Backbone:
């Protein structure tokens, strides 16, 4: 190969040179410009060249040498930019850096599951305002004017205070049920999930804001047995086929008769643990037959229709599923807490 051809070949090689590591850059430099490097060898060969060719070939050769130096510098600087330090190979087999993905809040997961269970048996979902008037939160629900639940101790008033003109943060989503009954004729089968507010001192076991899902079923001949069957279905769908429920007499102004619903403890199976305080039962909600006075207040004839209602706290249900020891953890937005709830541990 003539000298000019060898120069041309090296020019192409220099132009195309690439390197993945600092070591490879150094290898390239040595192979071109080292003591036995290809460019260095051409300078030796140049000594034999005839005098008349020297000028032109000398120029080409010097250009090649400069190009090789420039290439080495360029390769080194890309190494520095990419943060590849001397000797550290770029590991093409390393796992890719993944983008963190978000997840749903545990209370959202539990609320969605509750809604799903009731949707499957024909309940629609209704929503209403969080700032509510006295009529919808209390009056139409049969709360006497001097009922303690209207007291400033429990209710956050927005304006007007206690009385028919008062506006307050709703203390339960029964207010939504009143709105649904006012606007429709039975059959009504609906649940109302949402935030509610009560003036409680914040502690591990209580918060001034929590979530409820309340349910309402009004039609001809709705009975207490329907209520019990519906709640039994809910408990088994949510916690498994082995759980049982029991109803204890209770009191709510808007239901008659009223009951508290207990479920056999889903954690110890009823044998007694610290969650059920050794009793084998945990309270999960309140319920009852809609008081005829409430139906009348909502323009539904209680001689034709009857209904049942129930209401549960989502945090309470979540507690039995996730066993979070302190309610406040739900609202602190600590990523180490929230990141643990990527999949809902529910039965399908
Ligand atoms: N509204 C009641 C509460 O907030 C729950 C409830 C709803 C009880 C419907 C009976 C019937 O505690």
Residues:
């Amino acid at each position: 190969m003539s000298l000019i051809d060898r120069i041309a070949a090296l020019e192409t090689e220099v132009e195309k040179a690439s390197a993945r590591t600092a070591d490879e850059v150094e290898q390239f430099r040595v192979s071109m410009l080292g003591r036995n490097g290809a460019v260095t060898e051409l300078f030796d060969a140049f000594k034999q060249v005839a005098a008349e060719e020297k000028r032109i070939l000398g120029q080409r050769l010097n250009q090649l040498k400069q190009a090789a130096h420039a290439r080495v510098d360029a390769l080194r600087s890309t190494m520095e930019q990419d943060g590849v330090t001397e000797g550290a190979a770029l590991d093409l087999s390393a796992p890719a850096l993944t983008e963190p993905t978000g997840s749903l809040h545990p209370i959202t997961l539990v609320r969605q599951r509750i809604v799903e269970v009731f949707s499957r048996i024909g309940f629609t979902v209704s929503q209403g305002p969080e700032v509510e008037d006295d009529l919808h939160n209390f009056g139409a629900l049969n709360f006497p004017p001097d009922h303690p639940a209207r007291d400033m101790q429990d209710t956050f008033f927005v304006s007007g205070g206690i009385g028919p003109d008062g506006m307050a943060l709703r203390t339960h989503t029964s207010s939504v049920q009143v709105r649904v009954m006012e606007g429709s004729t039975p059959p009504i089968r609906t649940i109302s999930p949402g935030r509610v507010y009560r003036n409680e001192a914040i502690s591990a076991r209580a918060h001034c804001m929590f979530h409820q899902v309340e349910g309402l079923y009004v039609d001809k001949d709705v009975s207490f047995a329907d209520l019990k069957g519906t709640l039994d279905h809910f408990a088994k769908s949510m916690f498994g086929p082995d759980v049982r429920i029991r109803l204890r007499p209770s009191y709510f102004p808007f239901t008659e008769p009223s009951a508290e619903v207990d479920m056999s403890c889903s954690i110890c199976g009823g044998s007694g643990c610290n969650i059920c305080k050794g009793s084998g039962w945990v309270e999960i909600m309140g319920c009852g037959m809609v008081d005829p006075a409430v139906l009348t207040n909502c323009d539904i004839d209680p001689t034709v229709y009857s209904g049942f209602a129930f209401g549960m706290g989502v945090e309470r249900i979540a507690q039995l599923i996730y066993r979070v020891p302190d309610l406040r953890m739900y609202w602190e937005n600590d990523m180490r807490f929230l990141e643990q709830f990527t999949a809902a541990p529910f039965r399908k």
